[in-house]
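Issue 218. Parser rejects a valid record. Input:
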Amino acid sequence: MDLSLLKTWEPVLSTEFNKPYFKALSDFVNQAYAAHTCYPPKDQIFAAFDYCPFDKVKVVIIGQDPYHGPNQANGLCFSVQQGIKQPPSLVNIFKELNSDLNLPIPLSGDLSPWAKQGVLLINATLTVEASKAGSHQKKGWETFTDAVIEKISAEKKGVVFLLWGGFAHKKGVKIDSKKHVVIKTGHPSPLSANRGYWFGNKHFSKTNDYLIKQGEQPIDWSLN
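Output the parser choked on:
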């Protein structure tokens, strides 16, 4: 794996890189990409960190797995490559964005403009084999991303954590809620959203309200 994309995070995460689990994870990922089609592209595995340096993190959104279809995953949770059809969960995210902030539905599903403003868009598992959802779970990624969340929680303050769905809620135990804001809702997938667990959560406006109160620049959530 190319750790150069983690350059701004290296001082924070260097201890993780030297642990046996991370060496085993690196070996697994290198072998998986050599033997199978995997996503995201290998040079985008750590894109979330490259776009959003540690000292710029203001908001964290936690996903579960990268998309496992062709040309979808780009290393940012819920985001897809430019020009790719928006998956159902992303469609629902944009519907809530429109309802909450009266912003037009974005034409592109590429969320990198959010990441560049300090939104860390991180999946719990950073790689996946094509057409096999969850295929790279329990290989070490969860340990690594737990460490990332713990480092943010310990070394920063006033970060807004948006936890969407049960899987993200479980990650919440790694966050010091006395130092940070933790906002929970259901997952934006159609199954959850259609049961009333997503729409109306107003997470985008709540995030900006908090950032403004802290004297921080709010996030420009528009993508058009």
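Fixed in the parser; the record now loads. The two ends are 33 Å apart (CA to CA).
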